[in-house]
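Appendix B, record 7
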Amino acid sequence: MVIGSESETVEFKLTTGERNEAVESIAAILNKHCRGTVYFGVDDSGYVKGQQISDSTKKDISRVISDSIEPRITPTIEVITVEQRTIIKVSFSGHNRPYAVNGKYLIRTGTENRRMSPDELKRLIKNDDYSSKWEEYLTDYTSEDLDDDALKDFFQSAKSCGRLSMNEYNKEKLITTIDIVHDGHINNGGYALFGKNAKIGLKLASYATDNKITITDLKLLEGNIYNLVNDAIAYILNHINWRSEIGTRKRKEIPEIPEEAIREIVVNAFAHADYETVPEIEIGIHPGKIEIYNPGPFPDDLTPIDFISRNLPSYKRNRLILDVLFRSKDVEKSGTGFQRVNDFCKRQNVTWNYRKEANGFFFEFIRTNVRINVQINTELTDAEQVIFNLLQNNEGISKAEMAIRIGKSEKTVQRIISSLMKKHVIERTGSNKSGSWKIKI
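Structure tokens (predicted):
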């Protein structure tokens, strides 16, 4: 009988004589996925051969795991019978990464274990400080408690973009493939993504001014992440301005803010939220900006500009949720989100802003249809308006950061700034080294 195939979380060993190799797999799997299973008595193809087991066999396996892996883990070691053949199943989990096996740091890649590079080890330590373990804990829910329509829609999206290798929809196989079920129970991340009665919160609001004083429209929704992402994007697209562009054959409707950039930031908010605190994602439509609130702190000492200019890897708070959204092409390559948003915005001369707070992160799209005349009879070029919006919404912003935002050189930014100063729209305050530009009101 074949019981399955090896994967990034499953390892087969023919006998317990391979226990030293098995503990290397355990450490490598823990460093990648925080949990996994090793079987003794099964060959590489998944065929059950059986294993002779004495009174001391389980103790020997437990001892070698305890002596070889640091920090220590407590595995579950079971003797099970498959078609009258006895095998050993070792289940393990741990969240105190990185794990070393006999002083070596390994990581799982496919069905192989390889040494981690110094940079990979540093990133693992840093990312694990930022990542959440909440999504991996099992709930009392089963597959019957999942939203079938959302799962089917996800299946079609993931299959059509080539990120899911299943020919036909099979609910049980799908939820196993995307790693949201274990021992018949759905984990927190899976239920948040697809639960029928998930309680993820979404606040959709429109305001009369750029301050949150007068609300003109308010919707409070609860549901699963997969459906709420679509609700949030639809709300924004229905509350912004569109213009028509006549092509050679048909008219094209273009939103004032790139739809791809909106989707990236909305999905980012859901993917990186801190779900241990029962959060509420917020969308705010203002006359001069679209504001998206992510209830999860941004990585310490970093800003979106760092991810754009330094090509940093993604800091994954919710690895499972992010992986599922990647499969349906709701997010792209880890770490490139802000780069892509910046590129989309540059193409349409849309400026953006961000604000870090202790318990969350705000991202703002500055609405391009709002052109502020700061002085009577003052006309600004498109380039001047972009720089003006940046200065207005980003106090103390540097020329270097403005250049990154608009995709131009610092010399070009300086020429635009000089033009704005000649038009008496902005002024320089403080010294050349530590001063800043201010809007003249």
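Remarks on this record: Residues 132-370 form a domain with the Heat Shock Protein 90 fold (CATH 3.30.565.60). The first strand starts at residue 10 and ends at 13.
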